[in-house]
Write a structure and sequence with these properties.
Strand content: 15-25%
Structural class: alpha+beta
Largest sheet: 7 strands, mixed
Distance between the termini: 47 Å
Strand order of the largest sheet: 18-19-17-16-22-23-24
CATH class of one domain: Alpha Beta
CATH superfamily of one domain: ATPase, nucleotide binding domain
Oligomer: single chain
Number of helices: 17
Shape: globular
CATH topology of one domain: Nucleotidyltransferase, domain 5
Helix content: 25-40%
Length: 477
């Protein structure tokens, strides 16, 4: 039996999972780390935290599984997209990473649009200039911290910094690179035209691979701290959403998934390049070689419910601790008692600006329709409904582009909620399913590792063996 490890470097923490070649989980471990928000709209993390969490969790799952390291065929990396990691000539991190949900770069987006041109930018990168993407962050550092920019010798994405630390290679892959706004998305390579117009040295960027390709091998130093065998292959892997797509079997036309994590995503697979000329949804290369995906994003999906929990639900958190269950389960049950529509209490989930469909970093969230009859339970349900409607905004644009969705999977923490899934099924007017394995992105990149190391011939073949559906939520007309 062969095994693969999927490492998912998320915003709130890193999770490493070991799978056998049938998709069975052998061991799993997580480690959390902080996020810095020193000003309104800022969001940063320490790259060392990602690597340390990866090392800690890989080491733990190898120990817990009892699997011999020589039987681990490969490692796949998934992670939060768009973050900017800058290394100096000694490969030291220059500054904290500006991550995906940071909104400080509105001026730089205007600069990018002016330099490249709105239509040309969308033609090449498949997206308009966005505050969340990496290119605007690079320009922000150049404009505001010239001393840091002058020291920069390498630019990496979050998961690719972990790759560098494990293998010594400066590399990325097409799905994550698509979110940098420097990739020629239709042709799956760096865009010399965009780099030249933005005056960014191509030498700062790593080599671009397909997601299943081997990008490097575990070094002796990384082997000592992780317990992996030196020389173990590390494949390209994928950005978190592209990885989740593979991990839920969204690898052919007509299939899509919704994830409710910190952010919320509606993601549809397509074997041809489809670009929204209005730039309301993203088109990226996907983890299946030669294919793409269309993706709508709402910035604060699970984050909205977490914000409500942290600030207003101490009573539910205390009860959950006493009963040994999730506070979200208790919040779900309270929301179920409230009628559809939350008695006209409406929530707009724009806590971190918004991407789809508004493309506005300055938009902000709100509750309205509030009256004296409303209770905390109304607020919980209103948040869930507001997020669901925001995800339907994404879904309706994908359909408008001519991508027909016949099967929707749900994943992420919010996808475990039957109530949230029922809202989505009603809005999408199609069944919403879950998979039996809840390890989405980690499973996805483990599948890519199995394909890259020859255990399976194609991503589709691996998914047919390793992924099984679980629950189905049918729409209530």
């Amino acid at each position: 039996m062969k095994y693969a490890i999927g490492v998912d470097i998320g915003t709130s923490g890193t999770k490493s999972v070991m799978f056998d070649e049938t998709g069975r989980v052998m061991a799993s471990a997580s480690a959390e780390y902080p996020l810095w928000q020193e000003k309104n709209g800022y969001a940063e993390q320490e790259p060392a935290d990602w690597y340390n969490a990866s090392v800690k969790t890989i080491k733990k799952i190898i120990e817990d599984s009892g699997v011999d390291a020589s039987d681990i065929t490969g490692v796949g990396l998934s992670g939060q997209m768009h973050g900017l990691v800058m290394l100096d000539e000694n490969n030291e991190v220059i500054r904290r990473s500006i991550i995906w949900c940071d909104q400080r770069t509105a001026k730089e987006c205007e600069e990018i649009t002016e330099r490249v041109g709105t239509e040309r930018l969308i033609q090449i990168t498949a997206n308009p200039a966005l505050t969340g993407f990496t290119a605007s962050k690079i320009l922000w550092v150049r404009n505001n911290e010239p001393e840091n920019y002058s020291r920069c010798r390498h630019i990496l994405l979050p998961k690719d910094y972990v790759r560098f630390m494990l293998t010594g290679e400066y590399a990325t892959e097409v799905s994550d690179a698509s979110g940098m706004q420097l990739l020629d998305v239709p042709n799956r390579c760096w865009s010399d035209e965009v780099l030249e117009k933005l005056d960014i040295d191509r030498g700062l960027l790593g080599k671009v691979y397909e997601s299943t390709e081997i990008t490097g091998y575990i070094t002796e130093e990384a082997a000592k701290v992780t317990g992996l065998k030196a020389g173990t292959p590390v494949v390209g892997g994928a950005g978190d959403n592209a990885a989740a797509a593979v991990g839920t079997g969204i690898v052919s036309d007509g299939k899509a998934f919704t994830t409710i994590g910190t952010s919320g995503v509606v993601f549809a697979h397509t074997s041809s390049v489809q670009i929204d000329p209005k730039g309301r949804v993203h088109t990226f290369c996907c983890a299946v070689p030669g294919c793409w995906h269309i993706m709508g994003v709402t910035q604060a999906a699970g984050l909205s419910l977490k914000w409500l929990r942290d600030n207003f639900c101490k009573e539910e958190m205390d009860e959950a601790e006493q009963k040994g269950i999730s506070e979200y389960y208790i919040m779900d049950k309270k929301a179920e008692e409230i009628p559809i529509g939350s008695d006209k209490l409406i929530y707009l989930p724009y806590l971190m600006g918004e991407r789809t469909p508004h493309l506005d970093p300055d938009i902000r969230g709100s509750f309205f329709g509030l009256s004296a009859m409303h209770t905390k339970a109304h607020f919980i349900r209103a948040v869930m409904e507001g997020v669901a409607y925001s995800l339907q905004d994404c879904n309706s644009i994908i359909k408008e582009m001519g991508t027909e969705i016949t099967e929707m999977m749900a994943c992420g923490g919010g996808g475990t909620s039957a109530l949230w899934r029922s809202m989505l099924a009603d809005l999408y007017e199609c069944p919403v399913k879950t998979v039996s394995c809840k390890e989405g992105p980690a499973l996805g990149v483990a599948i890519l590792a199995f394909v890259g190391t020859g255990v399976y011939k194609t991503v589709e073949e691996a998914c047919s063996v390793m992924i099984r559906t679980d629950k189905t939520q049918v729409p209530d007309q």
